[in-house]
Specification:
The chain has 11 helices and 11 strands. By secondary structure, it is of the alpha/beta class. Strand 8 and strand 9 form a beta hairpin.
Length: 341
């Protein structure tokens, strides 16, 4: 069993951390060779991304600690100590806080709310609105704190030249489009009348302790992501977000039936479905088909059956693929827009 965990940490280091987080890359490779720490990681519930939860748990505990380990984290100091000296200090911290970490593993989830992913969702929403000329009703599955539910309120900058201004605040999401031209509709913000987020453990942005967990999920070197989160919070606090605790697959039909029929329903989720067992992913599709017999809807997603980004239109139980885009960067620093399937 530890061999499987070891492989997960090596894969995480190579595929996720390389060129993104030198600290986590180094730690993940070291943990992969350390049975003592793998044994602690073994306590993480099935279905959760083990490396992410362990490392977030450590950073969460460090946020209220004066342990020597904080001096190695760019999230806590502007002059971090050399990475090649960190592992013994890291291991000592984990071993001495193993009980606290195991408690966190049982109550917290990896629910990184990457707000920059709005950069590739937003053009889809403007196009849907332009096509149907109906207010949009959002349902986000795995919404975490619901940051993506405010996507029509944000300003965007694509390829350092295309500026989309939706509000007077200074908050701007920047991303690089490496694909085809974005749709002309992007200059007209959609009207959004409802913002519903479903999560097994929604994060309340008005709760400081829960915000600490959201911060802990952001990797140490990613200062810009931390800044974007802090800038987005005042905007979100002004919106009527309906965050619901529960299983989206069980709730989606009931929630959809309560939404005004004169709106266009858009169900979306990013980097969530890979944590759902395959049979339940199939069940989600069946539930959406059932909903579509009462009202048409859009389904925008990735990591369901492949890593690509999909936009589907579902009506009367029939699924029409609108577009398929290559796997975007995990933190949406870039994506490849496609105007066709």
């Amino acid at each position: 069993m530890l061999a499987k965990l070891s492989k997960q940490f090596r894969t995480f280091a190579k595929n996720e951390c390389e060129n993104s987080s030198p600290l986590y890359e180094h730690l993940a490779y070291k943990i992969a060779e350390d049975d003592e720490l793998l044994q602690i990681a073994y306590a993480i519930p099935q279905g959760q991304p083990v490396p992410n939860l362990l490392l977030a748990g450590v950073q969460y505990l460090l946020s209220s600690s004066k342990d020597e380990l904080v001096h190695f984290y760019p999230s806590f100091t502007t002059t971090p100590k050399p990475i090649n000296e960190v592992y013994p200090v890291f291991k000592t911290f984990v071993l001495s806080h193993s009980d606290e970490l195991k408690a966190l593993f049982q109550e917290k989830l990896v629910q990184t709310n990457e707000i920059r992913r709005c950069s590739y969702l937003y053009p889809m929403m403007t196009e849907i609105y332009e096509r149907h000329q109906k207010p949009l009703a959002f349902i986000e599955i795995g919404a975490s704190a619901g940051l993506q539910l405010g996507m029509d309120q944000y300003n965007y900058c694509y390829n350092e030249q295309l500026h989309i201004t939706n509000s007077e605040n200074a908050f701007v999401l920047s991303s690089e489009n490496r694909g085809e031209s974005l749709p002309a509709s992007i200059t007209n913000p959609p009207v959004v009348c409802q913002r519903i987020g479903i999560d097994l453990n929604p994060i309340d942005i008005h709760d400081e302790e829960e915000l600490r967990w959201l911060q802990a999920l952001i990797w140490p070197e990613h200062q810009e992501r931390r800044l974007l989160l802090n800038q987005a919070l005042p905007i979100l606090k002004e919106l009527n977000l309906q965050l619901m605790k529960g299983d989206a697959i069980k709730l989606i039909k009931e929630i959809s039936s309560d939404i005004n029929p004169d709106t266009m329903l858009v169900v979306y989720h990013t980097h969530v479905a890979n944590q759902i067992p395959v049979e339940l992913r199939l069940e989600l599709i069946e539930q959406l088909k059932e909903v579509s017999k009462e009202r048409p809807l859009y389904h925008c997603y990735n990591n369901l059956f492949d890593s690509q980004l999909h936009q589907d239109f579902i009506d009367q139980g029939e699924i029409e693929s609108i577009r398929i885009m290559e796997r975007p960067d995990g933190h949406a620093r870039w994506f490849k827009w496609s105007n066709s399937k």
